[in-house]
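Weekly puzzle thread! Below is a chain. First person to post its structure in token form gets bragging rights.
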Amino acid sequence: MPGPHDKIIADAAKSALGPLNFRRKGRSRTWLADHGWWLAVVEFQPSAWSKGSYLNVAAHWLWSELGFVSFDFGGRVQEHVEYQSDAQFAPAASRLAEQAANEAQRLTQMFTSPEATADILLTEERIGREHGAGGWMAYNAGVIAALVGRTDAATEMFDRV
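Winning reply:
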């Protein structure tokens, strides 16, 4: 059952994310902004152990039909902030929401076009390869490279999957 901290989070998120064209996904703690070919995803993730919230912000690529929203680029940006009282948590939730808005704007500035996104994902995968990358990052880099006509890079990435 939702508690007072859930309403505080929802109000803070609406205030900070609403002007950026985010919409709340049902009554969840997830907020989405549609950029046509990708979604900006903000999740005020609950904890199984205490009231409060973690903060996750990511891009979700719309070229995969997964049936759920995934964090394809990005992730945890704030560790758990615990709810102790309404007076304590309201400003903390506002800070989380502002941090979410700032991170979402950063992603929006990065992913301005499919071509710019291909450059970013290919670079991230190539750098990460030295540290055991592959998998979904390589797959997504391959898809966006193919979509923008960079077939050699797409082949390279799909070979890594």
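Puzzle host: Confirmed. Bonus trivia for everyone else. Helices lie at 4-17, 86-110, 114-129, 136-147, 151-160.
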